[in-house]
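Q: Give me a protein?
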Amino acid sequence: MPGRFIVLEGGEGAGKTGAIAFLAAELTARGHRVVPTREPGGTPEGKALRALLLSENGLDWAPDAELLLMNADRVQHLERVVRPALQAGAIVISDRYAGSTIAYQGAGRGLGVERVIDLHREIQHDFWPDLTIVLDIPPEVGLARSRARLAGGGIDEGRFEGLDLDFHRRVRQSFLAQAAHMGRHAAVIDATLPPDAVQAAALAAVLRVLG
C-alpha cells in the first residue's frame, strides 16, 4: 500500500497517547498526511466495544469472548479506517493493534500466542504493521501512572488495571518477545525515560521506516 502503518504498543501507563500526539504533529509538520487512531475504539462500533471491554465496573467477559470482541473491533478498524487511509497514502499511527491481543489475551489471559496469531491470520489476512514501537515499562510503574490518569480524569476504563501484577508481567514479556521476533520491524524504547526522550526516540524510529 502507498501509506505506512505504524503501531505503538506497551503496557498500561507507557505513554502511548502522548507519543502518538507528538508523532502526528511532527510528521504533519514535515508534510505527511497522518491518521492517528486506536484499538479498541477507532470506529463508532469500536467505541461501543471499548466501553464494554474496558469499563472497570462493566461486564465480566470470559477470555474467549474478550478475544473475539477485540478481533471484531479490529475487523471494523481495518475495513473502515486503516486500509482506506493507507490506500490514500497516509501514515496511520495506531494506539495498539494485534500485538496487544497477543500480549493481553494470548499471554496474559493464557489463551496461547499461536491461537491468537492463527485467528489474526484467518480474520485479518495476516496484515501486520510496517513498524511496531514498544514502549517498555515495568508494570509497577506503568500501573501507578495509569491508575492516577484514570482517577484524575474520571475515566471508567480500568478493567485491565484491576488485574494482578503477574498478568501484567506476562504482558510485558510478550511485548518484548514479539519485538525480538520482528527484528527491524520493531523498536523497543525505555518508557521510564523523560517524555521528550521517549518521543524523540519514537520519531527517529519512524523516520527510519519512512526512509
